[in-house]
């Protein structure tokens, strides 16, 4: 049975949220830096019940994700068809201890530094919503004469 929230969005179950999370490669991580919220795009991959990403040692992202509670969001939007989905995860970011070189290099990163740190975000909470539009929005008949 499909559940619709008060805004008319389909509420996604855990299995569908995980499937959608695995289908994308770029998401956004919400961290705290200098007591202020910061949202950064990251490449990632899903490994079981965790999200893996790499960051350079000594970066703002490196400092802000050491045993910190973070938010992670990934989505897909189609503005023409007024449809899309969004998945949000809350979890704790920790070092992947003893990560093999294969595990580190199998996790994508846009830039490469001399020292990479592999970080895992636990999937402690996950939720998602989907909007399934009825087709192109805001179009009109170009042949209409007044």
Q: Helix segment count?
A: 3
Proportion of β residues?
Answer: over 45%
Intertermini distance: 46 Å
Which whole number gives the mean pLDDT? 85
Report the structural category. Answer: mainly beta
CATH architecture annotation: Roll
Describe the 3D structure:
By secondary structure, the chain is mostly beta strands. It has one domain: Electron Transport, Fmn-binding Protein, Chain A (Pnp Oxidase, Chain A, Roll). It is 14% helix and 47% strand. It is built from three helices and ten strands; from the N terminus they run ββαββββαββαββ. Strands 1, 2, 3, 4, 5, 6, 7, 8, 9 and 10 form a ten-stranded antiparallel beta sheet that branches. The chain is elongated, with a radius of gyration of 19 Å. 21% of the residues are buried. The C terminus is likely disordered.
Record keyword descriptors for this entry:
146 residues; mainly beta; Pnp Oxidase, Chain A; 10 strands
Brief characterization of the structure:
By secondary structure, this protein is mainly β. The protein has helices spanning 14-23, 60-64, 101-106, and strands spanning 3-4, 10-12, 26-33, 36-43, 45-46, 50-56, 68-78, 83-95, 116-122, 125-131. Strands 1, 2, 3, 4, 5, 6, 7, 8, 9 and 10 form a ten-stranded antiparallel β-sheet that branches.
